Amino acid sequence: MSGVRVLERLYGAAPPPFALLRRDRADGRGPGPVEVLFGEMDTVGSLEEAGPVGTSPGPGMLVLLPFRQMAVHGLPCHDDHTPLRVLRISERHVLPEAALDAHGGGQIRWQDVGFTTDDAHYEALVGEFAASDAARGGLNVLLRRDCTAVLPGFRPAVAVELFRRLLAGEAGAYWTFLVHTGGERPTTLVGATPQGHVAVEDHRVVMNPLCGTYRRPPYGPRTGELLSFLADGKEGEELAATVDAELAVLCGLAGPGVRVEGPFLRRMAHLLHTQCRISGPAVASARETLARAMFASTAVGSPYAEACRAIHHYETTGRGYYGGLLALIGHDDRGREELDSAAVIRTLDIDHLGRARLSVGATVGSRSSPESEAAETRTKARALLTALTTASPARCGPGAPAADPEDARGPVRDALARRHATLSSFWTSGGAPAPRGGRVLVLSTGSEDLASLVHMVASVHGPAKVVRYDDPDAGATLSRHRGPVLLASGPGRPDDPDDPRMAALREVSASLVRGRRPGGGPVAGVGLGFQLLALAAVPGTRVTARTGTGLGRDVEVFGRRFTAAFRNTYAVASGAAPERHGTSALCLGPDGRELIAMRGAAVRGVQFRPESVMTSCGADVLRSLLS
Fold it and tell me: N or C: which end of the chain has fewer CB within 10 A?
């Protein structure tokens, strides 16, 4: 069917459900062609109800996952009843962009454009969170605000024109898309998202964590400004925290050999973002991979579960499709499963009456400036609206914007290389050395995804078995186990007298300290696990608020200097304790009181997170804890 006849089907008063997509190519060679998808649109309760994909080459279904699907993972979210929709693809056509240009250029009326809350309200929200104990402990959260508008006389043909304008005026997107659900009260999504989420290609699962935003000045980036952005510790930590959160997801979906690449720059028309690429051998089906990877940390925050709870607290309404996913599931030419997905951000959500909502957000942490974060949301909204409201935008070219002249001179590449060099060598090498030790029992404190920690344990020592602290058989399992025990981290204050979880963890930790012997393998702890063991093993230890802000700290641990990731809100102090307790050596912070690490034959641990991409020699630290 000719491109003209395909497009004619989109311009009627009530076209069938359809989607227009332009996606990044899997091989990284820029964007692919414009795809037109037709099919039947269904509403389902879960991905399992979506039905079979079929075996023909190409995409078989397009899935629209709303943010409220977070509840499937037991995480809190406001239920706004936004449906999970599936476009069962019956036709796929490929068009040149020129075909859209031939139909474009029509006028679009915009009315009542503006944010639903003013800057002062959003700045107060950012300030409140930034001052919280959770933020001081390393929690980063994307807090949204909404910009609304009315498009009088809206019809699907208007959405096609909006899509055409995005293709021309907003380059560098991972997906540029239009999805029209059809029916009596259709929803239409039009967007240009920089955030690819999870993909399965050539038997490898890939994720693209993105965080950090540089607002491109009208005159274009200057080398000094861009270098300052790349050297900003806050921006670097936010990206590293996002990578950590995505690693925890990917390690549950991949076999040995997970690798982190980057950071890279993703250039949009008005913004620059930093992102990484993480990948590993796929071990799950495309549909299971998608179900277990909901949603992108870029649109949520990290640590993930805590960020979800913060969003539920600070945001008072549901997100609709914002922060959710669009996903294509199908097969390649050799019959292998394929998955490609993108986060629904930088997206206009339009109802059947032409009422439009554009949600934007900024990632907020302890070092956030309320004024700067508000400015970032304005820039993100303005960038998309500028492209959408310009009838004849200057075309940015078929791919991402051309490299800025400053990039070609080398300083920017050198700055990115320096950022890469600070990351954990374990993750950047993708190495999976043959483990030499026996099985490790990892004791979960009940509220963190431990997949990246378990992946590192299996790589540096031996296979790991995870047991929750409150499992009815945990006591018997611990008593039978003769190898190392690793008490994992999690949120909370270890000496909280009113928290039943902490009371149970203190009892377990004390039992481990009393009952372990060197011949039975050491007991080690990281983060909260370390704090619990220190309280049980070192007299006079007390809990304090963590000093300083930010996640990364340069530390010296038993004569070795490196950068480590500190994520817990609280720390433990040794009081006037010496640098040794019995047969255990204690490592204190610069203030001479904060306990950073302890090393003994039977009990040992570190306050920081060895599995974090920010801990430069985390694999070596973890190996020494377990040996």
Answer: N
pLDDT given for residue 52 in this prediction? 84
Q: Which residues pair with 146 in a beta bridge?
A: 359
Closest alpha carbon to 507 in 527, 525, 533:
533
E strand spans, 45-115: 58-65, 84-95, 111-115
Rounded CA-CA distance 355/91 in Å is 29
> Does 590 sit behind a cis peptide bond, omega within 30 degrees of 0 on the bond before it?
no
- CA–CA distances in Å: residue 484 to residues 205, 311, 346, 441, 448: 31, 37, 47, 6, 20
Amino acid, res. 552 = G
Q: Which helix (H) or strand (E) holds 295?
A: none
Tell how strand 603-606 and strand 523-526 pair up: parallel
For the chain, count helices (H), then strands (E).
18, 30
Residue type (1 letter), 215: R
Strand, coil or helix: 331? strand
CB atoms within 10 A of CB 237: 23
597 φ, ψ (degrees, to nearest 5): -155, 155
User: Which residues are paired to 273 by β-bridges?
Assistant: 213, 266
H or E segment and range at residue 238: helix 233-250
Q: Rounded to whole angstroms, how far apart are CA atoms 108 and 62?
A: 28
Q: Which tens digits make up the pLDDT trace of 530-543?
A: 999 999 998 889 99
Which two tokens mark 534?
């220190």
580 close to 587: Cβ distance less than 8 angstroms: no
| pTM for the predicted model, two decimal places | 0.87
